[in-house]
Design goal:
The chain is α+β, with helices and mostly antiparallel strands. About 20% of the residues lie in helices and about 20% in strands. It contains 1 helix and 4 strands. Strands 1-2-4-3 form a 4-stranded antiparallel β-sheet, with no helix packed on it. The longest helix is centred in the first third of the chain and has 16 residues. This is Beta-defensin. It is found in: Secreted.
């Protein structure tokens, strides 16, 4: 009976320790190193990397100035 209790306790502890925490709206996982198919995007609360599939990482686009503001006002 003591062995069963010991095995159950150790199993529950391991299950708690090995749970991966989610990040980036549950699209990423907090890991020390990312898998080959993942990219590092943010840091998690415990300073591990938030590893995300590249298709979920937002791409920051540069905004262009309005077309009317490109006039040359200075004469060389």
């Amino acid at each position: 009976m003591k062995r069963i209790l010991l095995v159950l306790t150790v199993s529950l502890l391991l299950a708690q320790v090995t749970q991966a925490r989610h990040c980036w709206k549950k699209l990423g996982r907090c890991r020390t190193t990312c898998k080959d198919s993942e990219v590092f995007y943010l840091l998690c609360n415990d300073e591990t990397k938030c590893c995300v599939n590249p298709k979920h990482v937002p791409v920051k686009t540069r905004s262009l100035p309005p077309t009317g503001s490109l006039e040359t006002s200075a004469v060389w």
